[in-house]
Amino acid sequence: MFWSQLDRVMGYYPVLLKGITTTVSLSLIALLIGVAVGFAFGIMRAGRNRPLSYLVGLYIDFFRGTPFLVQLFIIFFILPAIGIELNAFTAGVVALSNMAACFIGEIVAAGIAAVPTGQTEAAAASGLTKAQQLRHVVLPQAVRIVTPSLVGQFVLLIKDSSVVSAIGLLDLTRSGWVIVQSVPNGLLVFAIIALGYFVICYPLIWLSRRMEDRGQAAIL
Amino acid sequence: MHKLNPFVLTALLAVMTQAGGATPVAAGTLDDILARGELRVAVQTQGPPFSFMDKNGTRTGSAIDLTTLMAAEMGVKIVYLDFDWDGLLPALMSGKADILAADMTPTLARATKVAFTKPFIYVGAVAFAKAGTGFDSIAACKAPGTKIAVLFGSTGEKIAAAVFPEAEIKSYKGGGTLLLDAVNTGQTNCGVNDSSAVAAQSAAYDADTFTVMPEMLSKEPLAYAVRYDSMDLLSWANLFIDTTALDGRLQANLDYWVNSDAWQAAH
Amino acid sequence: MLLNLNTRVMLEFLPEIWQGFLATLMLSAAGFAGAMVLGVIACGLSIQPARLLRAPAVVYIDAVRATPLLAQLYFLYFGLPRLGILLPEMLIGVIALSLNSGAYIAEIIRSGILSIQRGQVEASISSGMTYLQRMRLIILPQALRPTISPLIGQAIVLVKDSSLLSLISVVELTRAGQRIAVERFMPVEGLVATALAYLVLYYLLKLLAGLWSRQNRLPGRA
Question: What pTM, to 2 d.p., does this model score?
């Protein structure tokens, strides 16, 4: 019984493949854009320019505080009213990268704030400009502090990508729902879906553990 | 050969120029569709037997076949836009789709926002329970405290509340298979959903897993929907339904997809 | 669609939105509390040198982080009955949220601890502090500062994740907004109502976190 069901699930292999491809490509692109923009946001948030920090903060607050589905719908269905028509995949990428950038922005800002002031003072005293301080002293340390959080964020991104099924993209979670229509063993189907996500996410998690171990031995 | 009476000729010319100078007909959605050469249809990814994905990830179902026919009759290509149930309506209202083809019931509340075609089929809600648990009739399900599974936002939700007033209604947000799973694992005692959905989805389980109570708890139409600015498309769609009803193609479609499980084999 | 927002209907649904708001608040609070407990325990175990203690914690953390909450929720709700355990859906929802966020919180705390400069630890060891004293007086207070922001982030994620509980028939905030969309066919009004309500929760959370960190006057850069 179990094996025949497993067999039937595997018969849906094209659907599963499409789901994995969509999830991975969507998340990867959103990740890259999100990190780039997120770092920019983080630096702006932690910077001296108060009005800028505040404005960026409001923007970040909106996108962190509202459900992703709402953001996605705004980008896909409401933007056309002001002339911006996107196809489903592009809208998904835009929405996902934007949300990622907002979360990453806050994480990076916190990381920068966690670098001891002594470091920036010493850097300034050594004659480095603000930009040089940021690049050579503050950011590297901030990055090391926040790396585990960042990886957690990447992984969350991959999971959040499942919301895009609402605008018609066949991602991994949606392919699970499609399969469960005709293979009524929900536990089996979603176990396979979970496995799919695991295969995508675990390498990232493993990578971040490796990065830490090289940077910091057990210190306690 | 007689010469046209000059008076008649002038009158004729006058009439013709009047007609030419009359208010131009506003371009309707149907005109847009014809100009574009494609009909854009919003369908669900997951709503058998009306619209769902088969093994190969191709879209199929009753609504797919009917709308393909529509496009063929109109002489245009067809473009499908898949959505979850939640995304269907925004797709139509934002103009991304011309018509919404799903198993949607035209309620009066909904009709204040979109225009529904005539019904292409009537279905009813049925109750079902797990075989052998003692819930084998409507009366049994009426017992106070019975847990009844329904789909969030569906007409089944309202019907269950009306028919089983003393029951505990649990409404699930997701597909109909959630209801079957809930009943099957014992999280709820009974479930209420469209007869077509129950039939299509319970077919995947072993033959006697569920007891489906034969009584129809309601009679509901299902229809397609268009925006209120597409009255021309609406008239055309209604004519389509009338025409295919008369020549039997509609019935053939429904007989294949809804009234039997012949489609199970191929999909 | 956005220009003629029907606020009358939105207000009409206010009671339902309020119910959903309260439900989400309670579910998230309970879930977060559970997650903190699980997170601290799992984190504590994951930094132990002893393999036997560390391994189960790491397996839990990695397995939960690498799989979607939806699948975890599905397993708990539809799987537990197969083992004979029938629990009310709200409880299952809270358990799922706790288990899920617990793994992330464990990692957040761990990164906070690891960010402490070596010098601090060495100094405290050479000052003759015991492990517990070290933890309590030097390490944990310093570890907390960089973890506040990610913890709030996780709390926010948890609040939004709680909307998944609609899958197992739990009444919560997102569903209230969807009612407006599904019954009156006003998706925009539903979206706006949902967004506003979640934003309120978000700012409440930020307020709480701000109050807490000011109360505790944590060391580090202001």
Answer: 0.84
